[in-house]
């Protein structure tokens, strides 16, 4: 009985949380470009990610308040469901736990996660078979080739920027302009929002971070804190039309859904993400406290 736009919005919005809650590939990209600690970046996203999740829950509850409540599932049924999902729930624990205990590096964690995922899908859940592997590998090659093409282009772009000393020139310009650093911060967010409407996450990170990183350091902003701001903007990029990737994924898996319904469903989530950027700007400890206590 849920409204279609509520369901579509929840799936599209919830599908962005992986960017903010570790392990996050965009955070790894941010760290590889800036040289910041991947572990510290991961920790910076935990509390904002939990807060974002609570906001999302509130949206769903508020938009579904007219529905009649179903009876609670019996404890036995809930335990059965938990037992069925136990092996899948172990995956993030193994990956993140392995990184923070020093058992393996973030790069090695990707390999460990892949091997474990193959094990549970082949042996435990038996949702895959050997005949499924060729199509999976072909899709992986296609995705990897696309990402490497973007990386090559971004690297060339960064090389040209370095030769022309664009980051240094922009940093000097920012230092010379007598305007509040928060004005620049607002402009940076508007730039990321605009780019999110026409580009996807990886491209935005590779194109903007080499330019923005020295500027935010010159302005006195914490790079770990700015990482969270950046990732929330990347979440918005996934659900903002016309090129929001999650919008097209939803349309692909639910062809009978209209794009208008999908966009109407994600609007509250875009608003909540903007609200959290504002909240983190006012209370930066939401992003910086956990990295400061977990080494």
Q: Give the overall average pLDDT.
A: 87
- Tally of strands: 0
Radius of gyration from the alpha-carbon trace, in angstroms: 21 Å
Low-confidence stretches: none
Q: Number of helix segments? A: 15
Structural class: mainly alpha
Termini separation comes to 47 Å
Q: What secondary-structure arrangement, pairings included, does this model have?
A:
Layout: H1 4-14, H2 17-20, H3 25-34, H4 38-44, H5 46-63, H6 75-101, H7 106-124, H8 133-164, H9 166-176, H10 181-198, H11 201-218, H12 223-239, H13 245-253, H14 259-282, H15 285-293
Label this structure with key terms.
295 residues, 0% strand, mainly alpha, 15 helices
Write structural notes for this entry.
The protein is mainly alpha-helical and 295 residues long. The chain has a domain at 4-71 and 158-293. It has helices at residues 4-14, 17-20, 25-34, 38-44, 46-63, 75-101, 106-124, 133-164, 166-176, 181-198, 201-218, 223-239, 245-253, 259-282, 285-293. It is globular and about 65 Å long.
In short:
With 295 residues, the chain is mainly alpha-helical. It has helices at 4-14, 17-20, 25-34, 38-44, 46-63, 75-101, 106-124, 133-164, 166-176, 181-198, 201-218, 223-239, 245-253, 259-282, 285-293. The protein has a domain at 4-71 and 158-293.
């Amino acid at each position: 009985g849920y409204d279609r736009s509520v369901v579509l919005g929840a799936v599209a919005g919830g599908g962005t949380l992986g960017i903010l809650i570790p392990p996050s590939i965009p955070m790894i990209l941010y760290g590889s470009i800036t040289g910041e600690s991947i572990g510290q970046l991961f920790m910076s996203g935990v509390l904002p990610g939990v807060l974002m999740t609570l906001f999302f829950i509130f949206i769903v509850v508020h938009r579904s308040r007219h529905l009649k409540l179903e009876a609670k599932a019996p404890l036995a049924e809930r335990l059965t469901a938990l037992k069925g999902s136990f092996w899948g729930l172990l995956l993030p624990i193994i990956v993140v736990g392995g990184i923070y205990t020093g058992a393996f590096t973030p790069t090695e964690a990707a390999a460990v996660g892949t091997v474990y995922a193959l094990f549970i899908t082949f042996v435990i859940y038996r949702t895959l078979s050997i005949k499924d592997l060729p199509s999976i590998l072909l899709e992986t090659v296609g995705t990897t080739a696309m990402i490497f093409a973007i990386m090559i282009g971004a690297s060339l772009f960064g090389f040209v920027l370095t030769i022309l000393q664009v980051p240094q020139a922009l940093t000097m310009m920012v230092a010379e302009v007598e305007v509040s650093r928060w004005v620049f911060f607002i402009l940076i967010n508007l730039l990321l929002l605009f780019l999110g409407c026409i580009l996807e996450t990886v491209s935005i990170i590779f194109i903007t971070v080499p330019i923005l990183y020295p500027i935010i350091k010159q302005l006195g902003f914490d790079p770990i804190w700015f990482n969270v701001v950046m990732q929330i903007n990347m979440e918005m990029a996934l659900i903002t039309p016309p090129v929001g990737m999650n919008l097209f994924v939803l349309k692909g898996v639910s062809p009978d859904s209209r794009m208008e319904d999908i966009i109407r469903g994600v609007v509250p989530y875009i608003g909540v993400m903007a609200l959290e950027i504002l909240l983190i700007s006012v209370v930066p400890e939401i992003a910086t406290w956990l990295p400061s206590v977990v080494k």
